[in-house]
Amino acid sequence: MRPVITAEEATKRLLVIFPRTAFDAVMSSPLAGAAVAALIYVDAVADHPKSLFWARPSMVTWMSEIMREQNSDQDRRAWRDEAAKGAKALSGLLQSWGVPDTPGYADNSRETLRDETFRKWREHGALRERLDLPKTSGAGRWTMEPHFADLFEPGLSGSEMGVAAAEWREAHLTPAAKLRVRFALEGEQASHAVTVTLPNNAGTRTLEVGRASLILKGVIENWAPVRLRNPYVVSVSEPGDKVLTADAKLLSYLGVTINVSSLLPDALIADVADSTVDFWFIEAVNTDGEINEARKRDFLEWAQLQGIDTERCRFLTAFSSRNDPAARKRLKDLAAGTYAYFADEPNHELAWYAIPGVRRDDSK
């Protein structure tokens, strides 16, 4: 049987494998760490296909660190055999060991494991589900893939773990998941200025270090060329009244005057077609600053002062990821008629708008 690992150490490693900025927190929570430790303890690892042991979520919730101290192969097999029979049988074994039968987690935590953590691990190739059982069966149906269990070998050092996690992601994640991880790690490790290549061969701009700049880079380099017909970056605003603007000829053509003291978005992009110009107001949100109703009104007032047709104004709030705390916190505040973009999923966009023809009943 594989060497046991503590739930605390398993959680630390899960955070390396599944960074929270790229993956749902249920994949690396303390409960998830307890699941890894319990599955390894009962040897629910597909090392031997002909003699697989399939675990139940209750084996995770019933397990505690004190129980895990009984770590001989004989004790571990005894624990899992009695746990497979039920809580009463397990309690009898623990009494014979002189170990408290206090569970590590409340029994209803099984639902989180089954419906969220295990499901997401399975989607990423970390866990195997037994499919020949009825959904109502109480028999065990989960076992770890050996390549995933390898990441929890106690002998792995911190640097070795980082390399092993990166190699595992490269071998087992989908291209979309790999992109989310890459963006998350770039944001965590960013220590240099961010260089952005502008569309329409308009050169490059250098932005200050930070996740917000990486988000803007994604908007300008990935979203704008695909989403817009003929995009030109009019301005990029940064802290300290630093504003990078397009060349004077383009500003003159668009009829826009950029004033540093004005309320400007993080980026203003003009979509120039043959007969129309749409202006996209972009906000890159690392913590706050989404385009809510008040900010949308402010931008529309600025547009009117510039002589811009407000019907040609468009609005985009950009986040690093749907998993990012800023997105979970601020999506609910987006103004109607605006869009949302996530830098780690560059081929998608969210729209928030009123359904045409639906009249609000103000009497209710």
Layout: helices, strands, pairs:
Layout: H1 7-17, H2 30-41, H3 58-62, H4 65-68, H5 73-85, H6 87-97, H7 109-123, E1 127-129, E2 142-144, H8 146-149, H9 158-172, H10 175-189, E3 194-197, E4 204-207, H11 211-227, E5 231-238, E6 242-245, H12 248-254, E7 267-272, E8 277-284, H13 293-305, E9 313-319, H14 325-330, E10 338-342, E11 350-352
Parallel strand pairs: 8-9, 9-10
Antiparallel strand pairs: 1-2, 3-4, 5-6, 5-7, 7-8, 10-11
Helix pairs in contact: 1-2, 5-6
CATH fold type of the largest domain: Arc Repressor Mutant, subunit A
* Quaternary organisation: single chain
Q: Which stretches are poorly predicted, pLDDT < 50 over at least 5 residues?
A: none
Main sheet? 7 strands, mixed
Q: What is the terminal-to-terminal distance? A: 64 Å
Number of domains: 2
Structural class designation: alpha+beta
Helix-residue proportion: 40-55%
In the CATH hierarchy, the architecture of the largest domain is Orthogonal Bundle
Rg from alpha-carbon coordinates:
27 Å
Give the overall shape, derived from the CA principal axes.
elongated
For the largest sheet, list the strands in their spatial order.
6-5-7-8-9-10-11
How do the helices and strands follow one another from N- to C-terminus? HHHHHHHEEHHHEEHEEHEEHEHEE
Describe the protein's architecture and organization.
The protein is of the alpha+beta class and 364 residues long. It has two domains: 7-173, Arc Repressor Mutant, subunit A; 192-352, 3-Layer(aba) Sandwich (Trna Endonuclease, Chain: A, domain 1). Helices cover 41% and strands 15% of the residues. The protein has 14 helices and eleven strands. The protein has helices spanning 7-17, 30-41, 58-62, 65-68, 73-85, 87-97, 109-123, 146-149, 158-172, 175-189, 211-227, 248-254, 293-305, 325-330, and strands at 127-129, 142-144, 194-197, 204-207, 231-238, 242-245, 267-272, 277-284, 313-319, 338-342, 350-352. The strands form three sheets. It has a seven-stranded mixed sheet, sandwiched between helices. It has a two-stranded antiparallel sheet with strand order 1-2. Strands 3-4 form a two-stranded antiparallel sheet. It is elongated, with a radius of gyration of 27 Å. The mean pLDDT is 88.
